Amino acid sequence: MRKRFERSRSESPDGRGFLADGRDCQELERPVGSREVGRQQPPEASRRRCGEEGIIGRKRFAVSLSLAILWPLSGWAELTVASLSTITTDIAQNVGGDKVKVLPIIKPGVDPHEFQPTPQDIKQISNADLVLITGKQIEGYLTKLEESTGGAGKFVNTGAAFPSLKLEEEGKSVEDPHWWHSIENMKKAATLVKKRFAEADPANKAIYEGNAAAYLEKLAELESWAKREVAKLPREKRKLVTSHDAFQYLARDFGFKIYAIDGISTDDEPSSRKIADLIDTIKREGVKAVFFESIENPKVAEEITRRTGAKVGGELYADGLGDKTASTYPDMVRHNVTTIVEGLK
Known about the structure:
- There is one protein chain.
- Helix content is 43%, strand content 13%.
- By secondary structure, the chain is of the alpha/beta class.
- The chain folds into three domains: 71 residues, no CATH class; 151 residues, 3-Layer(aba) Sandwich (Rossmann fold); 113 residues, 3-Layer(aba) Sandwich (Rossmann fold), CATH 3.40.50.1980.
- The strands form four sheets. Strands 2-1-3-4 form a four-stranded parallel beta sheet, sandwiched between helices. The protein has a two-stranded antiparallel sheet with strand order 5-6. A two-stranded parallel sheet has the order 7-8.
- Helix 3 crosses helix 7 and helix 7 runs parallel beside helix 11.
- The longest helix is centred in the first third of the chain and has 27 residues.
């Protein structure tokens, strides 16, 4: 009998203790006059033990219930971060992990040059703890957005982590905002985001630092791969004709010469004279391919190839990530580099 009353111990939903044979304390405490025929009252020692263990069981149950309620909180996000670029979304997701809820205001396939936030976007940005931007003038709506969402204090300008490339466009010096085509720039932007996340949420600083270290390692491997791939192209073949002037940072890092149909912004419209000059350059330089971009109409590029004999080199992602082929930053770089190298061989 002694073994029979040893408790394997689990608690019932109402906190009562169970004995090893499946009976609970209430059952044992029913009087002899119970309607359940044949049930006998247990010895006094067993009733006393059951009462004592029932109290313990209720306490254990209360603790277990508290832990069950609190357990999911460990995976809850501590920061809410709005992102005004698919590029900064990738950084935030990698550095923040499960401690950051990322609100991707600009989705894949949206042209950041033409984007204007909706009232719903503004509401999300207002409620966010931090807002990530790429900077360098690409967010032309930023001043009004800061005014309508409580000031510039919570905006994190990732493009401020490194100097800009300056280009001549229609006789003016302009800032090139497409800095993410330099992997080295991405490393610096990720480091800046790590710092701002840790400042906003110091309790999880170690987590942000660990996540950032893993992301930086991934970017270093990506950079090594890209250098090996581009090295397959002789220097004289590194001539890149694109829809608009978005790859100057890539050109600087990997030794390309860029010939763009449009200017820095997708809003720019090439003149007939510019297209004629570009056609002459392609013929003179022996450029093998013309590349169009994922958010641009490829018709102009196709017309230039028809008039020059160059081939269509393929689609590039210039202003952000894609929703399938290039849905992460490393995937975008791998797609672009592979397409360029294969197109110019």
